[in-house]
Amino acid sequence: MRFQRFALAVSVLGGIGFVVSTCLPIIVDPLISDILHRTIDYTNPIGPYITLFALPIAIGIYLVNAEDRFRQYSVPLTAMIMAAATFLSLLNFPGKAGINMFVMGSGLAYAFMLSLTVASYHHRPILATDNRKVDTDARIERIRLEYETWFRGILALTAFVAVPAGIIVFNAYKQGLDMYALSGVITSEAVTASLMYANVIYLAAFYFGILITAFLLVAFKKIEDLVDQLNKIESRKAVS
User: Fold this and answer.
1) Could you tell me if 150 and 226 are in contact, meaning their C-beta atoms sit under 8 angstroms apart?
2) Between 74-89 and 97-122, two packed helices, what is the crossing angle to 10 degrees?
3) How far apart are the first and last CA of the chain?
4) Residue 177 and residue 164: Cα distance in Å, rounded?
5) Does the pTM exceed 0.90?
């Protein structure tokens, strides 16, 4: 097995994603409870040590992306590792529906983006520039089609992911007030708790933005490769 920078990058992103989705509730939830003077048991079976599972998660993601024997299964295996870790981490938050929703939502969102990035990285065009058995015009049209598909995919991702995520982020503070303002009375404690809740959402969304950026870097690299292929074929066609 040779060292691969992409596999390392994806594994690090996956490990950090697990830490973000599990560590923020452990840190912030007790603080909110203290601010609101709630007598709720926030003891977790593993506590902050659950973040240590990020290491085996990162190692697993690296192996399935670096090993040639796992290459064709790297996308589902990456998703399964992240999803399995997310669901197992819920055992650390028994009886806490709000925390479970945050952990599960952010964890599965990170798993989706990582899998999409892995799928984009391992994708190879059907027609290569040196495939002389295929008609030149057919190769040009195929590359142009794939070029347009990448751009449409990026636009679809923006509409499907970025827009709903933006709505959640912009309404995070209001959601916090709805949860913490008892009987509709907005107290200073409720405002402080709502701000802390909103900051958790902002941090989770910020990391999701990092994963989107990683996908875009891979996607634009694919587009750049397609442009290079198109230029080579058209230059050969002009010479002949």
Assistant:
1) yes
2) 170
3) 42
4) 20
5) no
Domain extent at residue 177: 5-239
The structural domain count of the chain equals 1
pLDDT in tens, 81-116: 999 999 998 888 876 777 788 889 899 999 999 999
CA dihedral in degrees (7, 9, 12, 16; nearest 10)? Answer: -130
Could you read off the pLDDT of 117-146 as tens digits, one per residue? 998 888 776 555 455 666 677 777 777 777
Contact call for residues 99 and 29 (beta carbons, < 8 A): yes
Cβ-contact 219, 120 below 8 angstroms: yes
SS3 sequence of the chain: CCCCHHHHHHHHHHHHHHHHHHHHHHHHHHHHHHHCCCCCCCCCCCHHHHHHHHHHHHHHHHHHHHCHHHHHHHHHHHHHHHHHHHHHHHHHCCCCHHHHHHHHHHHHHHHHHHHHHHHHHHCCCCCCCCCCCCCHHHHHHHHHHHHHHHHHHHHHHHHHHHHHHHHHHHCHHHHHHHHHCHHHCCCHHHHHHHHHHHHHHHHHHHHHHHHHHHHHHHHHHHHHHHHHHHHHHHHHHHHC
Question: Tokens representing 186?
Answer: 């907005």
